[in-house]
């Protein structure tokens, strides 16, 4: 093996974590190989179940796995990536409240920085809309829904109650459809606890630019999903986009508008802004890699997942999904080991196994190995597949238990505040007076 011993992985999503796991397996007995993973959060978030946190089907800790428990050999740096210098083979990272900085050198670098929400510069959305990318996003959405219900329950003005109880989701892909289904399920499930509200007061809107939701699936499944959501009270605005959200007013590209306090944006992603400063080939902002997942023109640098454009061998590129990232990680780890040992790398090749979407209320759609499923069995497949994919038995057990209890009990409409409790601050004059009295 060559003298290249230090491997740094930037990003703790599926691509980064599974690359580290595979590298640990390959270099288990080689103490000279040092693997370091850098991520802002100290956990792996299982994003396919994110909407279930918003819908109160699962607890927030059910879908996160501590990185310290997942990785045994890898060193973990909990902080942010500030700069990457490919020429000097260094990464600048920082952590703590004072952003204490460190410069880490590497021999092999893995870029797994993922993507960020893109609002396309539309008025008011970046400032006012909610997103569904993180655990905090899901908890914020849940708190927002409950807050709107609590306020509307004692709001006598009909016009004000209308905007409080109007919820708009922008984007009819997987994230948007699963989010709007979760919102609709949760609101209608807890509504009986609010005596002054009735189902007709609720307005849940999905804005989708296409003619059929879930365009990633067969159109038959997309039409089924759209029809089912509409039957459950979701208003779908086809061939329409959210164009602005200001002063509680939502406008759509079809010229219509509505008053709402809550807009959830799932209609766009962009490469991590950090990629712009990295001096290497890019494709529409993403890192351009070859079929071996190696960054072109940058020896020892690799990329995968949402932040990379990966050729599929047929003139296209692989989609940025979790199932692809996990398989990319295995190939990437193999190629890093091959590069360090002077062996030949292997190209990444993978055929999508299938795609699934939950529609809430024990129904879903699925397309697996070309076969289509809908309704209860698709929902059952969704839960079964993702339960098996969830890392660690402890988390799978907790999720299975909560899903079982969900059949027996109603949803909890409890807000989860993350602010500190109020404290009583005694003025200095009173403190001095008390001190004088004691003396």
Helix and strand topology:
Blueprint: E1 6-10, H1 14-26, E2 34-39, E3 43-45, H2 50-54, E4 64-66, H3 67-70, E5 75-78, E6 80-85, E7 90-95, E8 100-105, E9 108-111, E10 115-117, H4 125-128, E11 130-131, H5 135-153, H6 158-164, E12 166-170, H7 174-190, E13 203-207, H8 219-231, E14 234-237, E15 242-246, E16 249-252, E17 257-259, E18 262-265, E19 269-271, E20 282-283, E21 286-288, E22 301-303, E23 308-309, H9 322-341, E24 354-358, E25 364-368, E26 371-375, H10 376-389, H11 393-408, H12 428-438
Explain this structure to me?
- The chain is α/β, with parallel strands linked by helices.
- The chain has two domains: 6-40 and 79-117 and 270-341, FAD/NAD(P)-binding domain; 125-267 and 354-408, FAD/NAD(P)-binding domain (3-Layer(bba) Sandwich), CATH 3.50.50.100.
- The protein is built from twelve helices and 26 strands.
- The strands form eight sheets. The chain has a five-stranded parallel β-sheet, covered by helices on one side.
- α1 (14-26) packs parallel to α9 (322-341) and α5 runs antiparallel to α6 (158-164).
- The longest helix is centred in the C-terminal third of the chain and has 20 residues, at 322-341.
- The N and C termini lie far apart (76 Å).
């Amino acid at each position: 093996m060559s003298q290249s011993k230090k491997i740094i992985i930037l990003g703790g999503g599926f691509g980064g974590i599974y690359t580290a796991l595979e590298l640990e397996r390959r270099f288990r007995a080689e103490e000279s190989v040092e693997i370091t993973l850098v991520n802002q959060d100290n956990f792996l978030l299982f994003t396919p179940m994110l909407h279930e946190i918003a819908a109160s089907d699962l607890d927030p800790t059910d879908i996160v796995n501590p990185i310290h428990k997942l990785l045994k050999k890898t060193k973990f740096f909990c902080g942010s990536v500030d700069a990457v210098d490919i020429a000097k083979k260094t990464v600048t990272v920082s952590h703590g409240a004072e952003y204490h900085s460190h410069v880490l050198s590497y021999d092999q670098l893995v870029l797994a920085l993922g993507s960020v929400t893109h609002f396309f510069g539309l008025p008011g959305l970046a400032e006012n809309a909610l997103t569904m990318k993180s655990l905090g996003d899901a908890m914020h959405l849940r708190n927002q829904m409950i807050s709107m219900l609590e306020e509307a329950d004692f709001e006598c003005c009909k016009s004000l109650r209308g905007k409080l109880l109007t919820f708009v989701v922008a984007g009819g892909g997987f994230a948007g459809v699963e989010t709007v289904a979760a919102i609709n399920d949760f609101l209608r499930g807890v509504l009986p606890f609010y005596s002054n509200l009735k189902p007709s007061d609720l307005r849940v809107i999905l804005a989708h630019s296409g003619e059929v939701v879930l365009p990633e699936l067969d159109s038959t499944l997309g039409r089924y999903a759209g029809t089912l959501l509409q039957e459950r009270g979701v208003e779908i605005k086809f061939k329409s986009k959210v164009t602005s959200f200001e002063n509680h007013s939502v406008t759509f590209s079809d010229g219509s508008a509505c008053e709402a306090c809550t807009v959830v944006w799932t209609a766009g992603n962009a490469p991590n802004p950090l990629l712009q400063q990295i001096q290497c080939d890019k494709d529409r902002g993403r890192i351009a890699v070859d079929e071996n997942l190696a960054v072109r023109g940058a020896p020892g640098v690799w990329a995968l997942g949402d932040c990379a454009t990966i050729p599929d061998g047929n003139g296209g590129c692989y989609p940025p999904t979790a199932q692809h990232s996990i398989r990319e990680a295995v190939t990437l780890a193999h190629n890093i080991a091959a590069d360090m040992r002077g062996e030949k790398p292997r190209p990444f090749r993978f055929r999508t196994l299938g795609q699934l979407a939950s529609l809430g209320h024990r129904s879903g759609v699925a397309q697996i190995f070309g076969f289509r499923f809908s309704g209860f069995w698709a929902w059952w497949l969704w839960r079964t597949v993702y339960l098996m994919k969830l890392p660690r038995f402890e988390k799978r057990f907790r999720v299975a238990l909560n899903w079982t209890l969900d059949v027996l009990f109603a949803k909890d409409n409890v807000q989860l505040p993350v602010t500190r409790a109020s404290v009583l601050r005694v003025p200095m004059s009173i403190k001095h007076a008390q001190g004088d009295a004691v003396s």
